[in-house]
Each structure stands twice: as C-alpha cells, then as structure tokens.
Amino acid sequence: MKVRASLKNLKNQPGSKVVRRRGHTYVINKKNPRFKARQG
C-alpha cells in the first residue's frame, strides 16, 4: 500500500474523501484505493 506524506495532495484526487475517525484524519478513496493517508 502506498501512502502519501501530505493530505492536501491527496484530497484533490478524484473520488477521495477526508474522514475523521477517533481523533485521526484519514483520506480514503474508493475509486483508487492506493491513495490512503492518515494524520494525527
């Protein structure tokens, strides 16, 4: 699984969502699942 360092680059990808779960910020992408990230 590839993970980006920056969330800002990832949230501009088509199909990506920024989700907050349990105090962490995640970027998930259903169209292209390799774009995943976590912050916090």
From TrEMBL:
Keywords: Ribonucleoprotein, Ribosomal protein. The keyword Coiled coil does not apply. It holds the Pfam family Ribosomal_L36. One of its GO terms (cellular component) is ribosome. InterPro entries: Ribosomal_bL36 (IPR000473), Ribosomal_bL36_sp (IPR035977), Ribosomal_L36_bact (IPR047621). It comes from the Bacteria. Belongs to the bacterial ribosomal protein bL36 family. PANTHER family: 50S RIBOSOMAL PROTEIN L36 2, LARGE RIBOSOMAL SUBUNIT PROTEIN BL36B. This is Large ribosomal subunit protein bL36. The gene is ykgO.
